[in-house]
Amino acid sequence: MLRTRFTEVFGVEHPIVQGGMMWAGRAELAAAVSQAGGLGIVTGLTQPTPAALREEIARTRDLTDKPFGVNLTILPSISPPPYAEYRQAIIDGGVKIVEIAGGNPATHLPYLKDAGIKVLHKCTSVKHAVKAQQVGVDGISIDGFECAGHPGENDTPGLVLIPAAAREIEIPMIASGGFADARGLVAALALGAHGVNMGTRFLCTAESPVAQVVKEQIVANSELDTQLIFRTMGNTARVADNAISRRVVEIERAGGTFDDVRDLVAGARGRKVFEDGDLDAGIWSAGQCQGLIHDIPTCADLIARMVREAEELITGRLTNAVVAGAGVRP
């Protein structure tokens, strides 16, 4: 069994976390991941109201007695959601782990800490990870350029970002972006992380509440089948390659502004992709790890396979490696 500082501090069996994903982080998926020994995450803002989030938390608890968390993503907005009310719904629901992404977690930390909640903060740079550690979060999720969603503006891939962050971070840290199998898990541990966070991989599982055609498209896609949108706006996002994302990139290259793509990138259109299976209805997040995904397993099978193969790699191939001259021979 893989025991790390992350599993010890956050009280989970395996160092594998399901990332909070808009429209996908629902009770069925989060509970399946947690029941299999990982850390499932319910996406707070997928629920339309704080009251609905309370119900989703209760529904998750009906499906598993294992630890699970709730994601709260804080983004600038003209009409921001009632974050304080969503936060209170999390506290009232007895959730003990919160993943915060986007904005500074300091605003929410006193309330969450007083409720005995451990906070995992998602960062895309060493600078922000260090700041989050300083303000008192319990763990860091460091997000490399390969990830789905927002990778930040530094374009630093995990192979560099993870060890750079590990040099500065003293609290448990998990690695995000590009992880889909046991090889990635072992690599993350070798680079200084204490586990991995996976979004796209868990999107493509039996319990994922998205249309089957979306899962089949992820299996069919390669690592090349993503687009980077909002590059010209300083808010880069990695999404699946489709007619809409290609059109957004074209408009940006022609000098377009956010107003010119607003209708194309509307969240309601992305939700339609996941719920109706219309792959060109809108933009939808997917990472480069699509190229490593070749099946649609249950969460239990995926996690068991990853842990088993990671242990085999560590105790087999890597243990038996011998230094031969300037290289390492298996």
Automatic annotation (TrEMBL):
Q: Which CDD domains does the entry link to?
A: NPD_like (cd04730)
Q: SUPFAM superfamilies from the entry?
A: Inosine monophosphate dehydrogenase (IMPDH)
What are the protein's GO molecular function terms?
nitronate monooxygenase activity
Domain of life of the organism encoding this protein? Bacteria
User: What keywords sit in the KW lines?
Assistant: Flavoprotein, FMN, Monooxygenase, Oxidoreductase
What InterPro entries has UniProt attached to this entry? Answer: Aldolase_TIM, NMO
- Name used for this protein in its record: Nitronate monooxygenase
Organism of this sequence? Nocardia stercoris
